[in-house]
Amino acid sequence: MRILVIEDDPDLQRTLAATLREENYAVDTASDGVEGLRKALPATYDAIVLDVMLPRLDGWGVLEALRPTVATPVLMLTARDTVPDRIKGLNLGADDYLTKPFDIDELLARLRALIRRTTGQTSSIITIGNIAIDTAARRVTANDNETSLTPREYTLLEYLALHRGELVTRATLYEHLYDEDDDSLSNLLDVHVSNLRKKLGHELITTRRGHGYSIE
Amino acid sequence: MSSLLHSIRWRIQVWHGIILLVAIGAFCVTAYHFAWDHQMRRLDRELRDVERLLIRTLMEYGRKPGEAPVPPDQLTQSLRAHEITLPPAVAAQFTGVNYYTLRDADGTPLLQSTNLPADITQLPVPKDGVTEEFRSIGNRRESLRANARGFSSVFGRDISREISDMHNLGWLLAASGLGVWVFGLLGGWWLAGRAIKPIDNISRTASRIAEGNLAERIDTSGNDSELDQLAHLLNQTFERLNNSFERQRRFSADASHELRTPVAVLIAETQRVLKRERTTDEYKDTLLTCQNNAERMRHLIEALLTLSRQEAAGNQTEHQPCDLADILRDTLVQVQPLATERAIRIETDLQPAPIHGDAAALSVLTANLVRNALQHQPAGAPDALMRVTTRREGDRVIVSVTDHGPGIAAEDLPHIFERFYRADKARTGGTGHTGLGLAIAQTIAQNHGGTITVTSTPGNGANFTVNLPAST
Questions:
Q1: Helix and strand totals (H; E) in chain B
Q2: Where are the strands (E) in B368-450, listed by range?
Q3: For residue B256, which residues of chain A lie inside 8 Å, CB to CB?
Q4: Rounded to 5 degrees, what angle do the CA atoms B280, A11, B291 make?
Q5: Helices then strands (H, E): number in chain A?
Q6: B65-81 per-position pLDDT tens digit
Q7: Among the partner residues B257, B289, B424, nearest to A79 by beta-carbon distance
Q8: What ipTM does this complex have?
Q9: CA angle (B150 as vertex; B144, B155 as ends), nearest 5
Q10: What separation in angstroms does the CA of B377 have from each of A170, A215, B217, B345, B349?
Q11: A188 touches chain B (CB under 8 A)
């Protein structure tokens, strides 16, 4: 899961990014509305955390420019907490609203819910055969036995499970699982896929040669 | 019911009713009195007429042509001597309502009409001359006369018809007076309603405003009456209230916004770090971030307090004589570390600028201006230069702070004294930059009856000029 954080306060931006990375999200940041919009427009993010008071272009402006084409779920994060402000944000196409100061656990839960909703999932636990993926606790059980996965393996499994039945290309996986600064060797997809197969069973992930992967 | 009796309309109506009743009553009584008087005078004149007719007839009685008429003083003898039969035309005068009696000194009737009432009294015979009198007895009006020679006369008239006419007139007056009164009451009710209507309008609007609709105003489209003036006055008051509420609301919204971000950082950062064990360096980083944001909040709170104190101070501040040049010298000593850190040279020309003011507040003003200039000067440029001057111009003192920074964009110029307005938009997140410094400076200048003006050419620095009244 890749998330864009558009926040102009450097401390808050750093804290948000660190929090999300510790939850194994791939995180990119933008410090003003124009930069944020530029990054958000290719629609490679699974969610956007958007501040309202931004230099150059405010959060509402970003939302307005984004919405005709980009359906990425947006969580507005702002110090404005009046009802008209919240209504304005939601009417412009925000999917959720959180006022500063906030609890990071609430922020994470709301982000998970947003991502789940856009992929059509209703529950935070995804079951595939005898495998259950608890997206809230980031835990995977196979036949009721907990299986330990590395963060990379878990995010890959979660992404494929959330897009169950779809063919997910390698490019999409690279876009959604790794942030723009990530060039480590650990993004070798094939290694993670074969590790997942070893841990959870060979038939779980189908490889379509030259196209990508899918979970049926 | 009690509210009805307390309503102004009702009270006006009650007083109006009482006053109108008294006025109409007084008018009716006076009119009746005049009419009665007039009637009596007319009756008296008529009595005199018939009296004169009878006396003349008696004086002419039995006169041969060429003979002189009987003189008045011999009339009594003439009456005593002869039996007189009045001509029918004259006698006819005394058959209806008129009657008369002519009497001798002892009360013996000399001549009288047949319809004379029984209870006739005559005037006593005077010592000399003549006495005469009109009197009303029951429903009769009489003209009485007596002279020293013993002759007395009573001419009277039954006036029951006139009295009944007067009674009718009285009733008519009472009825029409009542009618006028009722009409006046109705008119008064209408008038009071009309007079009250603007007040009603005002009170209704005022109560709507009190309910929280501060933007509403009383309709003042009427003429320039006292109530319109009141409405204007109230509208001005509402306007001021609304403005101050609006300012207060925006200010608290801005202040809470400015405080929320550092609090959000504190909460999010501590929650994140406490989720698991960290290395010492990570804890140190987090503590530094927290310290940084706590400092931010401290500066903001201090600035907010300064601002609210300055606003509350108004003109009641304790002002004493001081010199802006001295104040600026102290300020420059205070900001020297910042200037050194940013490698900015400060050029000064501090001429005496005596002023009657609050020295502590004025030093906040100058410090804010100088700090603002220092912060907007690019750090470390080799030729970085700032100029601070004070001087006296007539009855004004001028403080001028000029920097050679990037200047202020034209669209920002009108707003830079607004609270929390940041021309550069990018928040430094650092300390001491609250977005309130210039607002505080302006409030202080205004408290001293002065102004701050700013001029700037983008790319060529900015100049802030404080203009304050000099002490005499």
A1: 10, 12
A2: 385-393, 396-403
A3: 79
A4: 55
A5: 8, 12
A6: 777 777 777 777 777 77
A7: B257
A8: 0.79
A9: 20
A10: 50, 59, 47, 11, 20
A11: no
